[in-house]
Write a structure and sequence with these properties.
Blueprint: H1 2-5, E1 15-18, H2 20-23, H3 39-51, H4 54-57, E2 61-63, H5 89-99, E3 103-109, H6 125-135, E4 139-143, H7 150-166, E5 172-175, H8 177-181, H9 189-195, E6 198-200, H10 209-221, H11 223-226, E7 235-237, H12 250-262, E8 267-269, H13 278-284, H14 287-293, E9 302-307, E10 310-316, E11 322-328, E12 336-341, E13 354-361, E14 365-371, E15 375-380, E16 385-389
Parallel strand pairs: 1-2, 1-8, 2-3, 3-4, 4-5, 5-6, 6-7
Antiparallel strand pairs: 9-10, 10-11, 11-16, 12-15, 13-14, 13-16
Helix pairs in contact: 3-5, 6-7, 12-14
Amino acid sequence: AALALDNGLARTPPMGWLHWERFLCATDCATDPRRCVSEQLFVEIADVMAAEGWRDAGYEFVCIDDCWMAPTRDNQGRLQADPKRFPNGIRKLADYVHSKGLKLGIYSDVGNKTCAGFPGSYNHYDLDAQTFASWGVDLLKFDGCNSGTLELLAEGYKHMSLALNKTGRSIVYSCEWPFYLRPMQQPNYTEIKQYCNHWRNFFDVYDSWTSIKSILDWTALHQDSIVKIAGPGGWNDPDMLVIGNFGLSWDQAVTQMAMWAIMAAPLFMSNDLRHISPGAKWLLQNKEVIAINQDSLGKQGYRITKDKNFELWERPLSGQAYAVAVLNQQEIGGPQNFTFSLSILGNGLACNPACSVWQLLPASRDWGVYSWVSSLSVEVNPTGTVLLKI
């Protein structure tokens, strides 16, 4: 079954931009056209992504989230874009995005209504998949609101996966399936990976340190069940990068970027790329950190130790290398030192008999060569992370 359903996509975690966290369901274009969920917003974001290095850094998807639709389907039962906010329709928008060397993502829901109350895909899975393919869509984010029973939820996610494959168009399939299952039952991740390219497990990200910390804590708590399933074709999705917005300090932004790389997370920014600071742009476009996220071995990282407020995470990389993150969750005081033995990394193999250590974040720095019996002492700011490559 897995082979039959494998769409050959998402061999590494997908990267792009998604409107939701920053722009939500803003539909009043008359009052505030530059913040409205509209054709204009996605055209302008595509222009910036092509012109200012985002596409070249790997961010290839421009994704529409909820609230793009008209309140009703058309006379033939098809979904349609809001005619005032998307006057040229989704097909024309997809053509424009493709002309910039980018791909278009769109949103729908497994239930009869989306989370914001627009028409859902229930009882229309095949028709909606065909519609998205005919428009030239390259990714579908499929939400789980208003789905009824757990049986209908599972049936809907599977049906849409098959329907997308039947169109013959390569469409990345982003699911919220395990998140909606979890309150009632433990998800079967082997089954979910047969149908989905990436999947959300936890609550929506907010533009705050509390939100980032809760996602990291949840991931560490559940790593025994979720880390092993991630790999080429299917990824755990901790939700959007909110770097470049308002809620994170510099150190917290570094932590999100470093930890999303360690977790092999899809990298979907939700910010206003038309107005972003040079520091946030440097962090989000950091080639060395993106290379860790996109590593071809495709293994998700995990926490190996917790000592008071410090956490040590590692991620196996290709070429017998490892990414190592030292996270300081303390929210009071100044920088603190954390010392650990290199012999604990990679079950003792990462640094045996010796290894070079390179710091990637918060700044690039060569630490030199160390032996297997050495210890490293790392100074980390409160709520900050030091990301190393071993």
